Amino acid sequence: MTAFARAERAALADSLLAAGPDAPTLCAGWATRDLAAHLVLRERRPDAAAGILLRPLAGHTRRVQERLAKTDYTALVGRVRTPPAWIKPVDEAMNIVEYFIHHEDVRRARPGWTPRDLPDSYEAALAGRAKGSARLSARRFPATIIVDIPGHEGTRVGRGGPEVTVTGTPGELLLFFTGRQEHARVEIDGPAETGERLRTARLGL
């Protein structure tokens, strides 16, 4: 098993420390301290993590996250950097996407960012996740979206209709189809109106 999630976790922790506790992120309403609190909650507070996806439990999740965000920032990031022991067997499956996306949430919220040059093996690992994200988030989009990943097998998603092609690296497509269209470097070809609707659509969970 590769260790992309472990390496991304360490890089994200470095970026969180470098940015400081009150830097912006691409997660609406969250500063870096809030993002770090979310990551700690997700792995260490199973009683609260369910509220990330289940709306009836969201209030408890929010309160726990707010308390975590008020703790010492350096210690909080230290908890992000050092995962709990139980996670090791599932770290790659559970976190390769989570940590890549949230690392970019920190990086791309700062002026002057540039895309990272990821190893081919990492891009290959992200390619399948990018396709899965596209299938999930754009399944109801009223057009046919051709997801073109140069060097990797692409996919088609959407409900059918006008065709629009979205081309990019696996990492950029993953960001695009998790609702970060404005910050993802992809090319969109097809009817202008359909492309614009896709750029502004509410994608992601």
TrEMBL record:
Q: Which organism is it from?
A: Dactylosporangium sucinum
Q: Which domain of life is it from?
A: Bacteria
Q: Which SUPFAM superfamilies match?
A: DinB/YfiT-like putative metalloenzymes
Spell out the protein name for this chain. Answer: TIGR03085 family protein
